[in-house]
Each structure stands twice: as C-alpha cells, then as structure tokens.
Design a protein that fits this description.
By secondary structure, this protein is an alpha/beta fold. It has 2 domains: about 5-170 and about 240-280, Rossmann fold; about 290-535, Class I glutamine amidotransferase (GATase) domain (Rossmann fold), CATH 3.40.50.880. It is built from 19 helices and 23 strands. A 9-stranded mixed sheet has the order 13-12-14-15-23-22-21-18-19, sandwiched between helices. It has a 7-stranded parallel sheet with strand order 5-2-6-1-7-10-11, sandwiched between helices. α8 links the parallel β10 and β11. α1 (about 20-35) crosses α9, α13 crosses α15 (about 365-375) and α15 crosses α16 (about 385-400). The structure holds glutamine. The site of glutamine has 10 residues, from β19.
Amino acid sequence: MPHPTKYIFVTGGVVSSLGKGLAAASLGTLLELRGLSVILQKFDPYLNVDPGTMSPFQHGEVYVLDDGAETDLDLGHYERFTNCRLSKFNNLTSGQVFENVIRKERKGDYLGKTVQFIPHCTDEIKARINDVTLRSDADVIITEIGGTVGDIEGHLFLEALRQFSLEVGRDNVCFIHVTLLPLIKAAGEIKTKPTQQSVAKLREIGIQPDIIVCRTEHDLDDDNKKKIAMFCNVEAKNVVAFRDVDHTIYECPIDLRRDKLDRLVSDCLGLESKTPDLANWQTFVDRIINPTHEVKVAVVGKYIELQDAYKSIYESLTHAGASHDTRVVIQRVEAEAIEKDGAAAHLDGMNAILIPGGFGDRGTEGKILTAKYSRENNIPFFGICLGMQIATIEFARNVCGLENANSTEFDKNTPHPVISLQEEQQGVEDLGATMRLGASDSQVLAGTKAAELYGSDSISERHRHRYEFNPAYREQIEKAGLKISAVSDPEGLVEIVEIADHPFFIGAQFHPEFQSKPNAPHPIFSGFVAAALKS
Ligand code: GLN
C-alpha cells in the first residue's frame, strides 16, 4: 500500500543567511539518492506578493519558473539540486496569504464572520500545503520557512505548521531546525546557548523539532551534541553538524551525509529507502575542486558587488566549467567602472565576457562599450536578456551606423529604437508579474552556432523581460552580420542573435541560467566555456 505523503519543515534559528535553503536542497538531493521522490517549496513571510517587484539589493536574484512565477532564489537551489520542476504553488508569501484572505472577505466568502489571523490566514497556509500535496505524487514534500524563528512575521506560518502536523499525524511530519553554533575565539569554545534559546522559542509555539542541524565552522564533538540534545529535548543522534564547506555549495549534500541526515529523516518519517550512492555527485564536486584548466570570465553588470544578484549565472558557469574540467574564475566588473576607465582597463586578459540581465539605464553605456570590446577583440561573448539587447544596440550603432540607436527603456526619443516595447506591454501600469514571463518555445535556425550547441531545432527557455528586438530593424541588422539564430514559436520574436565571424558571440533574450544543472550544464554556457578555453 502506498504510504501517505510525508512532510519535512525546515525552520531557521539564531541568525539569517544560515544556508537553510541549501540544507533543504541538499536533503532533497540525498532523499532522491535514497530512491524517494521529493518536491521542495518555500514559505516567505514578507508582504510582497512575490519577489518580482524587489530590487536585487533587497533580495538577490529573482528566480523564474517554467510557468512564469517570479520566486525566491532558493527555488533555484531546489531545481538545481533535485529533479523537481516547480510551479507558482511552490513559493507562498504572506502577501499571497493576505491577498487571498482579503479577496475572499470582499466576496463575502466568510459568511459574516470576523476574519482573523487564526483560523483564516493559517487555513490559507494549510490549504496551500494540501494543494501542493494533491498536485504532486512526491513521497516527501520539503518546505523551507524563510526568516528566523522569533520574527513576528514568521509566527503565522509556524502556527499553521503546528496545526498541520496534528491534522496529518505527527508520524508524517519531520521538523528540522537549522541553527548557528558560534565559536567564541578567545575562549576557543563553541556556544550552544543561542541554539537552546531558539529551540525554546519554537517549543513555545508548540513545535518540538525532531532534528537539529547546526551550522558550525568546525566539527561538532559528542559532548556538544549531548548538551544540545539535552537542552533541546531531542536525541543526541538527531543533532547534525552542517560544517562550512571549503570550496563549493555542492559539497553540502556530502557534508550532511556525514552525520546521516537523510537516514535520520527517513527513519523519523518511517520511510523505507536505500543507502544513497553519492559517487556521481562526488565526481562532479571533485571536478569543481581540482580541475585541470582555468579560465577567467568577466561578468559586467550593475549589481556586481552583491553576492546573490546573478546567482544562477554563477552556478551555470560552475556547471559548464566542471563539464570541461575547468575552473571558471569570475571577475566581477561594475559597468559604470568601464564608463569611467574604458573597457580595456578592466577586461584586458579575460578569456571571455558575459553581460547578464538587468533593468534601468545605470551602467548601460559601460555595457555597450563592453560588447564592442568583445566583438572587436574576438573575445568570447555571451549576453543574457539585457546583455543580448546591449549587443544588438552596440551592433546597430557601430556596425550598421545607426547613430544613437538604443532601447526605448533607456532613451524614449532615440532615433533608432532597435530594442522597443512589445505591443502587449504598451499601456501596462502594474509592475508586478506583468513582464513576458516563463518558458516558451523557440525555433532554432539550421546552420547556426545555436543549432550546433543545442543539437536541436526546437527549444524551451524561460523569459523575464518587457522589451524586444524591434522587427523593423531586423533586415538591416541581419544584413550587416548579426545573425538571428532563434525565434519564438509562433510569434517570431527574436530569441538568439549571434555573429558567425567571431570565435563565440551569442546574445539570448531568455535566461538559460534557470535551466542549468550540476551534471547537465546548459548548452550555451557549455559552448561559452569551451570558447573561453580556446581564447
Ligand atoms: N530591462 C530589459 C527588459 O525589460 C531586460 C530585462 C532582463 O534583463 N531581465 O526587456
């Protein structure tokens, strides 16, 4: 008889940025290797309906799913670390909870009752978990709760989980609490008190964690495990160390396997599963840590100082690098610095150059200089979304002689709007969820570099943009040598541009970085790294 769906809830304590998302994703990897099917999801206790309207300074990357949902970047880890394909149902925010509750109240769905946090908002959260259960046939649903236990914002979600665990039966639920064990250097001691106190906070709400995952810089000895176990009311074997990894986030599943997190979870949920075989994963990690070759790739962007703004791009470069036994050393370059110092000052000696997506005109002229530098100096170039638009503008200006060509995003009165607003975008006023979003099909034209890389004439890629290659300029630009190598099907919008007479020059209107995986690098990233190796 099939077992009921099992639930893992991952909460965080002590501080934020603990790597909860990576812990959840890594557990997903391990459970899949145990032969179980998993779905991951994230609950975010902020009031934005989705992170699509947040600046990268606030939130890092917005990760886009097949169905066009703009989600938290942890969903990127989930899709990269496991086989799950996620949808808009897998990222619930307080904004969505309240939006739904208020919409129902206005419709009169609550039949005259006073509408309250409990039960109406908590019901909304539980309904989402049930909905995700019905939509998937996964053995296990792993839910990460954003924020830190003790935050006012998160309380509602934790209360909903407490109720939910009673409703589905405590045997079907495993609560994992991820905490920090700080090391007080002067005393040479690991401190367990913050962990004790954050577990106490959870128990106040009525949640007793089953497993405690402790972020530590060093190993966790048995004495500390016993101490945490005693104060937190768990068995010592259920206190798991999650050490800082030395080289790459892909070491996390291997690290968590040391204390057998996956087996503890499997036992806790009464699941039958096999011992995981991490050999392939380990090979991938080894290739990242000890590669034979090395290339330097400049990423020229606007949010370059932010660790998380281009997360999926950096991950995709790592995947592609590993597949070529190559370390990709990323040189982050501020587009505005190029405006100030010129391209050569920052890009000399690079094996390849990438311009990522972006919004707004700060730094665009620096990016245009970057594209020119790559094109003229035969340096492998990859432009993604805005990067593709920039390459088109540069080509129009400097090869086609279209003076002051631009995107209407940056210059409404440009004489040559080679990038312009799509028809259906004209008149759009709301900024939330109104772009061209999500996966759509394109046709790759035979005889192009794109066709060679994909090895297929039909592709599906994810989008997040408003502006497009303006078809009115297509003929003129193509004649001058910027080839259009993929168009959307059936609309015929320009999806990939390339220069044939160049070692590697590709611009993609979509975001290939959302579909690259550890052992399955994206073909364009793979081709890009291969070209960097030759340059
Ligand atoms: N700002 C551009 C547009 O909206 C590019 C968006 C992006 O790079 N994601 O079309």
